[in-house]
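Could you help me review a protein record that somebody else here produced? This is what I was given.
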Amino acid sequence: MFPQKGPIKTRVDSKTYPLGEGSALPADGSALALVALSHTPLEHKIYLSMTAETRTDGCVFNARQLMALTNIRSLGTVRRGLEGLRNKLSIELLSNGNGNGFARHYCARTPEDILSRRRAMGLEMYPRELEIWEGNEFFERAMKRIVANDSLSRREAQVALCCVEGLTNAEIGNRLAVGVQTVKFHLRHIFIKFGVKRRAELISRLLR
């Protein structure tokens, strides 16, 4: 288990983790997890749909194609997700089409390429509140397992990561700017989704 650290007072945006700066590329396998942590659920659903369709760096999509792939019925929602992914350097706009926004074509980048591009832009790759664990193989293992459980909500993923850090419910609430009862609510759902009954089992499951 990790050594106890004092609580970190940084507030975490519930919609997106801040990206960091000056970090070396993570060990193989954690790149996708780091990219996932920076995406909103909508953005990551679109990103995974793009990458799952091809598994290469060359497949091109437009918003209407992504509506079909993701089963998102709102074109505006897909466009918002695409704009967020562009801002995070996760995808690239290849063409503006006919200029009306309907025929824009996008290409997804690999997680490793995304992190390299972010680093070149002076952005951090680890969420700011997790920088103390950068390069820690046990924490990266836990992070990958949390991200791999696609039934977790974004807030549940944040709470699970805080548990791995050894924070108490009160410290987690302070970190995420929520009440202790809200933390307990999320923990109950996390335990169910990982098939455990208590925090120690959860941490053991994530670190083993």
User: Anything to note?
Assistant: The longest helix spans residues 180-194. The chain has two domains: 1-18+127-208, 29-124.
